[in-house]
Amino acid sequence: MTQPARIVVVGSLNMDLVVKAPRIALEGETIKGGTFSTMPGGKGANQAVAASRLGAHVHMVGCVGDDGFGRELLDNLHKANVNTDYVTTVSGSSSGVAMIAVSESGENSIVIAPGANDRMAPEYVRQAESIIREADVVLIQLEIPMETVEEAVVIANRHQVPVILNPAPARSLPEALLKQIDILTPNETEGKLIVTGRAEGDIDVEEIIHDLKSKGVRQVVMTLGGEGVAYSAGEAVQRLKAYTVDVMDTTGAGDSFNAGLGVYLAEGGSLEEAVRFAQKVAALSVTGFGAQASFPSRTEVEGFQ
């Protein structure tokens, strides 16, 4: 590799308000939790920080509010060596917040108040066209308005920059958008929703991947939690088993996976190599508490077996 991967992340920035709990509360139930923490998060910022830790040069495109959380989120990106020239502070808006409960088994329950993320208009992406044009990969998620996602994809396509779209949180997507995506990275629930319009249903992983490709997506990489990953390899679907680790907190695991995938592909790796690398990144990320705080360095990933 002659130079670091150039990654542009278009997406959300949130402050995560995290409570440890013995388990996830049922509807209408109150349970006693443990420690409380505030931690920088948001799918976009998570992917940006994770990619930077892996050695990439990263630009973040997003919005924060003109509040204390907004200043903290920007400071955190600076400390992670993420360029914030295209992170806009929106006057009169609060920053995005995520309320997260983490169980003793490491599973989580998340509710998001989007704040400034909902104010991220397509014009903010157009202002960043010069850096998108020079990128090796653009990473996008769905915690910002759909018209802004679509604008980012159009600009990346215009300059023939590969797009990785992480379709989270789960929602249906127009086929016109799917036809412009180089790699779609749903989990099983997200994949089902895009294909059938419902998050549940009796449809297997291979069928979901084939259906997504028939809608125009060039490649599909589906994360399956503890079952590993399934991805399209030509007409076939390949599966890779998950690494076995002691899970402390799964928050941000999908974001770290997407970052690892994007960085390795930007460096010229094959899809299979990139998926294996991304699996290592995600496996290491769940062994610590909090999203960004537990993202591994490049050295840690390369030393992980």
At a glance:
By secondary structure, the chain is α/β, with parallel strands linked by helices. Helices cover 34% and strands 24% of the residues.
Strand content: 15-25%
Cα distance spanning the termini: 22 Å
Mean pLDDT, rounded to whole units? Answer: 94
CATH topology: UDP-N-acetylmuramoyl-L-alanine:D-glutamate ligase
GO molecular function: ATP binding; metal ion binding; ribokinase activity
Protein name: Ribokinase
Pathway: Carbohydrate metabolism; D-ribose degradation; D-ribose 5-phosphate from beta-D-ribopyranose: step 2/2
Cofactor: Mg(2+)
What does this protein look like?
This protein has 305 residues and is of the alpha/beta class. It has a single domain (6-13, 43-92, 117-295), classed as Ribokinase (UDP-N-acetylmuramoyl-L-alanine:D-glutamate ligase, 3-Layer(aba) Sandwich), CATH 3.40.1190.20. It has helices at residues 43-53, 68-79, 122-127, 129-133, 146-158, 175-178, 188-196, 205-214, 253-266, 271-285, 298-302; strands spanning 6-10, 14-20, 36-41, 57-65, 82-90, 96-102, 108-113, 137-140, 163-165, 183-184, 219-223, 229-233, 236-240. The strands form two sheets. Strands 5-4-1-8-9-10-11-12-13 form a nine-stranded mixed sheet, sandwiched between helices. Helix 1 (43-53) crosses helix 9 (253-266) and helix 9 runs antiparallel to helix 10. The longest helix has 15 residues, at 271-285. The relative contact order is 0.15. Belongs to the carbohydrate kinase PfkB family. Ribokinase subfamily. Its main location: cytoplasm. Homodimer.
